Amino acid sequence: MEGAPFKRNWSYLPELVLHWISEKVKSIADFIRYRTVCSAWRSASLPMPRHLPPQLPWLMIGHKLNADQDDDGKRLFYDLWKDKMHMLDLPEIVDKGCSGTHRGWILFVAREGREVFLLNPLTWARIPLPPFTFPVKHLGEEWHAPLHHTPHRFSPHLHFRGIKMIFSSDLTNPDCLITVFLHGLVFCYRVGDLCWTMVKNPLKNDVADATFYNGKFYLLYHEGSEEDIVIIDSDNPNEKIPCRFGFKLGNIRYLLEGQSGVYLVAVKYLMEEGLEDKYELYQFQEQSLKLKHITDTSNTTIFNTNNFRFLAICSNDWDCLGGGSMYIVMFIPVYEGNDVVGHRYSIWSKKLEDGELEQRRDLDEAPLQLIGPDETVMWFQPSLV
C-alpha cells in the first residue's frame, strides 16, 4: 500500500535557519512577505533589519481619479526593482495631502496645515509634528515667550504641496533635525520642540532651493542673485558663509544631498534645433567653497517627479538602471478616436548629457486620471527603519 504523501511543515524550521534565510532576502517587499508567512518566521526576523541594502525607489501615486471620488486611504506604489504595483491601505491619511518624502517617511499635511505628521507606510509608524497653523520662532534667538508672541506665522493660504524634506540622521536618533523647504522658506524641527524654527534668509533674493548636510543649512539662490549659495551653521546661525562660483550654472538649479556631500544639478536650456535640455552635476567642496564638475555620471541615476523631489542613487548597484540619466514621470493623454478620455502616468529616462528621452514603462495598472496630473506623485525610497 502506497503511503500518504509527505507534507513538510515549514513553520518548524530551526530558528537559526529561519534567521539565516531572512538575511538572504534583499528586497524590502520580499522581506515583508517573509514576515507574514507565520509567527515562527516573523519571530526569527528583525522588524527593523539592518541587512537590507538601499532600495530602488517606489513611485507613489495619489488617490484623486476624478472630482467626485472620495479618498479611501488607499495608495498605489510602483516598485521599480520588482516591476510591480503595490496597493497599501493607509486609513490615517484620508483627506491628507502628501507633501514630501525622505528616507522611507512621507510627510502628510491636513487642509490648511492644521495637522502635520510623518508616516512610514510600510510599518505604520507615525510621528506627529507641530501644525503649520502654529507660530514659529527664528533660528538662534533666545526665546522663552508664549507661542502667541512669536514674530512669524505660516500663511493660512499656503499650498502645502511640493515640500522638500531632509533628515540630519535616522529618526531613531533623538537629535535628528528635520528640515523642510516650503515656498522659498526654510524651517526645521527637532523632536520635542514646541514649534517649527525658521531659518532666516540673509539676502533679499528669493531662495531657489535648500538642503541640510553635516550640521549646516545650504541656501541656493536663483541666477542673477548677489550670491549663489549661503551656508548657515545650525549651531551658530550668525555665522553665514556666502559663495559665488563665478560662472553661469544654468537656467534652473537644484540641490541634492548625497552620502559624500552636497551636489548641485544645473539645467541648461539648449536652443539648438533638435537638442533637449542639458543636465550638469556638480559636487560642492566644503573646504574650498567651490564646485567640482562631475563629468563622468555613468554611476549616477537621479529620480525626479516635480520641483525639489529628487533622489540620487549609485547606478552600479542595479543592473536594471542606466547610469548618467534622470528618471522622470510624464502625464500621457489617452485617446478614444480624437477625444482625450483620461491620462496615464509613464516613466521615462532622460540622459544627463544631452537630454535624450527613452520610455521605460507605462503604468497601465494605475486607473486613468480624469482631472489632471496628481501633485502628490513622487519617488519614495522604502525603508523599515
Tell me the β content. 35-45%
Uncertain residue segments? 143-151
Radius of gyration: 23 Å
Write down how many β-strands occur, each being a DSSP E stretch of 2 or more residues: 27
Find the structural class using helix and strand composition: mainly beta
Q: End-to-end distance, in Å? A: 55 Å
What is the helix/strand order? HHHEEEEEEEEEEEEEEEEEEEEEEEEEEE
Organism: Rhynchospora pubera
Domain KIB1-4 beta-propeller: 77-328
Pfam family, one: Beta-prop_KIB1-4
Protein name: F-box family protein
Describe this structure as you would to a colleague.
The protein has 385 residues and is mainly beta. It is built from 3 helices and 27 strands. The strands form 6 sheets. Strands 9-8-13-12-11-10 form a 6-stranded mixed beta sheet, with no helix packed on it. The longest helix is centred in the first third of the chain and has 8 residues. The N and C termini lie far apart (55 Å).
Compact summary:
This protein is globular. The protein is mainly beta.
List keywords for this structure.
five-stranded mixed sheet; mainly beta; F-box_BR-signaling; 385 residues; 5% helix; 27 strands; F-box family protein; KIB1-4_b-propeller
SSE inventory with pairings:
Elements: H1 15-22, H2 28-35, H3 39-43, E1 58-61, E2 74-79, E3 84-89, E4 97-102, E5 105-109, E6 116-119, E7 126-129, E8 135-138, E9 152-153, E10 164-167, E11 177-182, E12 185-190, E13 197-199, E14 207-213, E15 216-221, E16 229-233, E17 240-243, E18 252-258, E19 261-268, E20 278-285, E21 290-294, E22 300-304, E23 310-314, E24 325-336, E25 339-351, E26 357-362, E27 378-380
Parallel strand pairs: 8-13, 22-24
Antiparallel strand pairs: 1-2, 1-27, 2-3, 4-5, 5-6, 6-7, 8-9, 10-11, 11-12, 12-13, 14-15, 15-16, 16-17, 18-19, 19-20, 20-21, 22-23, 24-25, 25-26
Pfam families: Beta-prop_KIB1-4 (PF03478)
Protein name: F-box family protein
Domain KIB1-4 beta-propeller: 77-328
